[in-house]
Amino acid sequence: MNIGFIGTGNMGSILIESFIESNAVNPSDITITNRTRAKAESLQKSYPSLHVASDASEVIHKSNIIFLCVKPLDIHPLLEKVRPLLKPHHCLVSITSPISVKQLEELVDCQVARIIPSITNRAFSGVSLVTYGESCKQHYRLFLDHLLSKISTPLSIENNITRVSSDIVSCGPAFFSYLLQRFIDSAVEETEITKDQATKMISEMVVGFGKLLETNLYTLPTLQEKVCVKGGVTGEGIKVLEEHVGEMFNKVFQQTHAKYDEDLEKVGYQFNK
């Protein structure tokens, strides 16, 4: 199966690297292009049998599955330009959340899917969010599920929970990286621990925490109960978190959804004009 990538920015590159290094795809079966050609060529230096195309049209011509890894507002102009090249045997895969598979199906005459990846896929872990269009045939669904299972746990979602799912799966690593960095900074500010020491300890703690959850020995609430001994130090720390966290995460979701609504309006104008 020949696979194309239009766009080799952060997420496009992560998908390409992950698919190749997990042995899900042979680099010789991948054709890529990018507006800044040097970015595509830098990937080719790492994987010499990767094909670099001159433009999106060449990618479509050489591929069965085409991943669209460009910004949401760049998708409609791009598809307007190349849609005569997209045939029923092609499968177009968007990785952006504001554009639905229904909108794509109304614009192009090929099979359609939406896959929202996460940076955690680079470690062959985490979740990939999947929504298949009605046009997407079973053999492409099975192939994409197999492909994604090499780098993640594919999870099918409906359009109504796209944003919150993306917040958790795709934005979550950035949100919690920020919180962990604040945790490190506060430890350094309040005690004699060095930044390197705190970073090492917290990094190893997070890895161990993830492995512990992976065993299914504990749920999040029961894990908290196991660590939080009555009258102990952990309980005092939890009290502070309960007092100060408050509606912080509610506000995070409110803010991301407000931006999402703004993006939906802009994208909707493009697709409906």
From TrEMBL:
Superkingdom is Bacteria
Gene name, Swiss-Prot/TrEMBL: proC
Stretches assigned to the Pyrroline-5-carboxylate reductase dimerisation domain: 164-262
Question: In which pathway is this protein known to take part?
Answer: Amino-acid biosynthesis; L-proline biosynthesis; L-proline from L-glutamate 5-semialdehyde: step 1/1
Q: What is this protein called?
A: Pyrroline-5-carboxylate reductase
Pfam families from the xrefs?
F420_oxidored (PF03807), P5CR_dimer (PF14748)
Query: What EC class does the entry list?
Result: oxidoreductase
Q: Which regions span the lipid bilayer? A: none
Compartment annotation:
Cytoplasm
Decide whether keyword DNA damage is in the record: no
Q: Taking every annotated instance into account, which residue ranges of this chain make up the domain Pyrroline-5-carboxylate reductase catalytic N-terminal? A: 3-97
- Known catalytic reactions: L-proline + NAD(+) = (S)-1-pyrroline-5-carboxylate + NADH + 2 H(+); L-proline + NADP(+) = (S)-1-pyrroline-5-carboxylate + NADPH + 2 H(+)
**What Enzyme Commission number does this protein have?**
1.5.1.2
**Which protein family is it in?**
Belongs to the pyrroline-5-carboxylate reductase family.
Sorted UniProt keywords: Amino-acid biosynthesis, Cytoplasm, NADP, Oxidoreductase, Proline biosynthesis
Biological source species: Priestia endophytica DSM 13796
Reported function = Catalyzes the reduction of 1-pyrroline-5-carboxylate (PCA) to L-proline.
Coarse class of the primary localization is cytoplasm
KW NADP (keyword) present? yes
